[in-house]
Amino acid sequence: MLGFEKIAEKKISEAIEKGEFDNLPGAGEPLVLEDDSNVPEDLRIAYKILRNADCLPPELQLRREIRQMEDLLSAMQDERDRYRLIKRINFRILKLNMTGKKSPLLEETEIYYTKVLERMWNGEEGSGSSSQGFI
């Protein structure tokens, strides 16, 4: 195999000298490698076909919707609209947690929890009482 490697290295060096690798699409950008090691071997082709057709499993579709709504939420000014959107996000998080096999307590997105904390901290600033807002 050593001879084959030398031939390959020589061909690559010649191509570099001729500039055949210049101006290739994606030059200077990191490679996008698809890690399908967690997908069973017999399902890899099916998953690749679905991914190429832009079809997502329900769990990933829910995650995408949650991320999009979170982005929208950060730009909203009206408090009522924000509240309605938070309710919709929390509903989708609940659906996602019900489809998954992990504990909802470990969920990375906890908008309700952070919103409650924000309200408690904002409500306490002017009151002078450190226990206000706690149950």
Please indicate the percent range of residues in DSSP E strands (runs of 2 or more). under 5%
H and E order:
HHHHH
The span between the termini is: 72 Å
Number of helices: 5
> What is the average per-residue confidence, as pLDDT, rounded to a whole number?
77
Radius of gyration: 25 Å
Biggest sheet architecture: none
Low-confidence stretches: 125-135
Principal-axis shape? elongated
Helix-strand makeup class: mainly alpha
Quantity of strands, as a count: 0
Helical fraction: 55-70%
Characterization of the model:
- The protein has a domain at 57-117.
- Helix content is 59%, strand content 0%.
- The chain is built from 5 helices and no strands.
Key attributes of the depicted protein:
single chain, mainly alpha, disordered C terminus, 135 residues
Helices and strands in order:
Layout: H1 2-18, H2 44-52, H3 58-75, H4 79-99, H5 111-124
Helix pairs in contact: 3-4
Short description:
The protein is mainly α. It has 5 helices and no strands. The protein has helices at 2-18, 44-52, 58-75, 79-99, 111-124.
